[in-house]
Specification:
Layout lengths: L1 H4 L3 E6 L5 H10 L4 E6 L11 H19 L3 E4 L2 H14 L4 E2 L5 H7 L4 E6 L1 H5 L1 H10 L4 E6 L3 H9 L6 H8 L5 E2 L2 E2 L2 E4 L8 H7 L5 E3 L2 H12 L12 E5 L7 H10 L6 E2 L13
């Protein structure tokens, strides 16, 4: 009972299933924590929506999730939501929020050819926030911004057990690969948390080897840092619950994918916290 009372509860939130890449890193970093993963299937995808609508969707979903789960820390495992909503979340709830930022700085530091690409959603590519990160951390590099329209839905389909077309994936990542004389792209930033779900396919389909930069380990270290003073790392054995904001139950193929993807965490049923529910889940 004592161990349970000091175990941190971490809520991981994304528009869909991309945040599972961050959740996996968090589970490895904090095997003692209890996790709730919330996929906002009611709002997915955020990219094409107006910014004010994304803010409203996330705030509404978070109201329900806080009432049901009372987390000690929230990880927003979504570039779009992190960019737009984190200030609103931090103003409303006095707990740590950890966001997701495109890993442009480590890519620029690591690249030897100084040719890097940022593989993101069209929304992330178009935002001033992304361009300011490029200006701040990668001025010495030639940076190619690639807004992939299909990869996030393809990653969702993959986690639901659907077969994907290699040609479609290859076409989406092809603009990342730039050759200028003897120089070639050597680092690709995965600036959407959905994309690491397909990384094995990216490696296989790439025209030449590159370093695929996944922000998940850095996000996990940051979450651990903000929790450690109050919640020191304990023995493993934390719980895990998965939920959709629609209240839908994950299908058999998704459950199989979750159990294969996550490190030894059986999936538990989570309470229904649909955004249109009449009262908070008990």
């Amino acid at each position: 009972m004592i161990a349970a009372s000091i175990r941190a509860k971490i809520l991981v939130f994304d528009s869909g299933l991309g945040g599972l890449t961050v959740l996996r890193a968090l589970m490895k970093q904090r095997p003692d924590a209890d996790f709730v993963y919330a996929a906002d299937d009611l709002g997915f995808p955020y990219g094409p929506r107006p910014e004010a609508e994304v803010v409203a969707l996330v705030m509404r979903a978070m109201e329900r999730l806080f009432a049901a789960d009372k987390p000690d820390c929230v990880v927003i495992a979504c570039n779009t939501a992190s960019t737009l909503v984190l200030p609103h979340l931090r103003a409303k709830w006095p707990i740590p929020f950890v966001g997701t930022v495109p890993a442009i700085k480590p890519a620029a530091e690591f690249s030897s050819t100084r040719l890097i690409s940022i593989l993101a959603t069209p929304g992330t590519v178009s935002r001033d926030y992304t361009r300011k990160l490029v200006e701040k951390f990668a001025r010495h590099c030639d940076v190619t911004l690639v807004g992939a329209k299909k990869l996030a839905p393809l990653a969702e389909a993959f986690m639901h057990g659907e077969q994907l077309d290699d040609n479609e994936i290859a076409a989406e990542i092809a603009p990342c690969f730039v050759a200028e004389g003897a120089r070639k792209t050597d680092c690709v930033v995965l600036a959407c948390t959905h994309y690491p779900l397909l990384c094995e396919k990216f490696v296989r389909l790439a025209p030449w080897p590159v370093h695929w930069i996944d922000p998940a380990p850095a996000i996990a270290r940051r979450a651990d840092h903000v929790l450690r003073d109050k919640f020191p790392v304990g023995p493993g054995g934390g719980g895990f619950a998965f939920r959709y904001t629609s209240g839908a139950a994950p299908g058999e193929k998704l459950l199989a994918a979750l159990n294969a993807f996550l490190p030894a965490r059986p999936v538990e049923a989570a309470a229904d916290v649909r955004a249109d529910a009449s009262a908070p889940a008990k």
